[in-house]
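Our platform keeps sequence and structure together, in a single record for each protein. Nothing more is needed to write down the fold, since each code stands for a local backbone conformation. An entry from our holdings is shown next, in its original layout:
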Amino acid sequence: MLTTLILTVATALPQDAGDAGPAEDVRPWSWGAVESPIQPTGRSSANVMRSPRFAPRSDRPILDALRVPVKSLVAVRGQEDNHIMGVGLVTGLAGTGDTSDTAKQLVMNLLLTRNINIDIQDLNAKNVAIVRVESDLPAGLKPGRRIPVRVSAIGDAKSLEGGSLTFTELTDVTGEIVYATAAGPLTVGGFRAEGNAATAVRNHVTVATLPDGGKVEREVETSIVSDHGYIYLDARLGQDTFGNTVRITEAINGLYPGAAIALLDGKTVRVAVPTDLPEASHLAYLASLLDQEIESENVARVLVDESSGLIVMGGDVRLRPGLVVHGNLTVTIAESPQVSQPGPFSNGTTEVVDRTDLQIVEENNGPVLMPGAANLEEVADVLNLLGTTPRDTISILQGMQRNGLLVAEIQRL
């Protein structure tokens, strides 16, 4: 009724006598009415989707036994890599370096080594970055040899792309003995492109490498034979089973009767060096030990990583018959607050109105009767019956182990 009255009054307005044109268009809001503002209509969404299942199969038969050389199962004590580390400075960055005053101070210290003294306020620290420089130095590597070096940002640098590492000393854990030096252009396995409202990053651009950027300055002296005339063969990670240790001992004693003894820790084989063997023949003696082949023992072990969904099973994993019911409960919450803007001359206030999109999806899976599995191929077939994702399979395996259905050890990364 109000709208009709306003339109009638607006139409009845008289025109000027000298105006031959149409009557002026007078809109309703010009008579005191308030126009309703247009509210935002967008909304947020959150969905959890499962990709199609991919279960490749191999036609190759599964090996029950595998003969491998001893050198693939053990490491010779005294030949370990030695970790060395230093702190350096990367220069030449295109505005993606550190923004802290610490970086500026390091640049000043670097320039002072060349008798250049400038004020700290005259430096732009965004072109430099403080980095941690590290490498693994093999024992016995002679001075002058090149080694790979890894570099990682310490401060708030956005990218090390295009930078070059200044001369950096790599020391032992005490920081007193210099074993190597490093310098040169960095290799970054990614890129970063940034605009005013968008950024694209591929891989980690705050970590870089120098494939041959390190130079050995001091040798880490070592010997394959201890002071008491023994060679110690320590089992590698993942191969440290009692069966492998016994087989290695038997193989060496078959070549040199009575030379090898398995230590009580079950992970080390001690081999005696003949007293009449010349020192020049020690290396050939060790090589003959490492070339012996044994039948490696399969390990009943399951390695899982919940963060990435990785599952790795050993050859002796077995399953007992059981019943498994597994259902996921997926809850997705999307918040999309909207702004309610009042119209002009309405004396209203701007308000933020909450908008929530809540979705709950519960899987209705039936029980799965799992037959027993006597080999690795059957284990894969049984787990495929469940049709679950890797992360769900990890939860199922953990529950099966606690119930005694999984005959294996579970290790987590």
